[in-house]
Structure of Integrase, catalytic subunit:
Amino acid sequence: MLRRSNPRPQLDWADRAVLAALVRRLPRSLREHRLVTPGTILRRHRRLVAKKWTYPNRTGRPPVDNTIVALIERMTRENTGWGYRRIQGELLKLGHRVADSTVRRVLERLRIPPAPRRDTDTSWRRFLHAQAASMLACDFFHVDCAATLKRVDVFFVMEVATRYIRILGTTTTNPDGAWTTQQARNLLMDLGDRADDLRFLIRDRAGQFTASFDAVFSGAGIQVVKIPPRGPRANAHAERFVGTVRCEATDRLPILNEHHLRTVLQRYTNHYNHRRPHQARQLAPPRPDPPIAEPGCTSIRRRPVLGGLINEYEHAAA
């Protein structure tokens, strides 16, 4: 009746313990007849081994490393037009072999849309950064001399992307259109082939900037952009330099004459372009002059600039 209702009864551990105890009560001749098959013995052995040696349940593909996930997210955020295969190729250049389907799953998990939908619009931050690489900003500022009591006008231009400053000229007479136009020609000669990468020049609406001044830049393929009337914030980078040079140099020194001012500006712009850290450039100068030394050096030398008004620090030679 048991066999008809259940051809193969399922025994639990209590049933096996009772049967093992009863077997000990049987005569020796009967104990030699086993109640289980060899397959049962092997199955129980495998079960004991599985319980002893436990491993994490890793089914399917191994998980993607967090470093690769962060790198995929960074490339996607910084390059909105890159698709799965483009990111896969860039990762391969860096030594990370991942499939394009892995990149797709990572972006889906981060809820980042694919390239066709992600590249439909450009943020203002990205647009302005792209334009800054091809932009110049120019302006005037004046300094009153202590000895001659004359006002010296200083004309400068800044490469917005790098914050590099060029002092184009100084004059004690009222700068007119002809003088400003000549300074523009000198600037293009100094830029050389670099002028081909520039597209815009920002200036205000002062009378010194005449049509001939704009024509010099238009001939070089640079579009002159005039800021709104009474809107100095539209030329914020140039205005910020004026405040910086006044605060750090010209307002802290009695400028004797035009020649003295040229010397001060030459030394200050050299410090500004090659040694002074800039917040907009991750605390790096526009064009670093000395190489960055290895950490751990304890011998530091101070270099005074403008008679100690500004100090520069560098590793002393061994």
Observations:
- Residues 202 and 235 are 7 Å apart (CA to CA).
- The chain has three domains: 2-52, 66-121, 130-281.
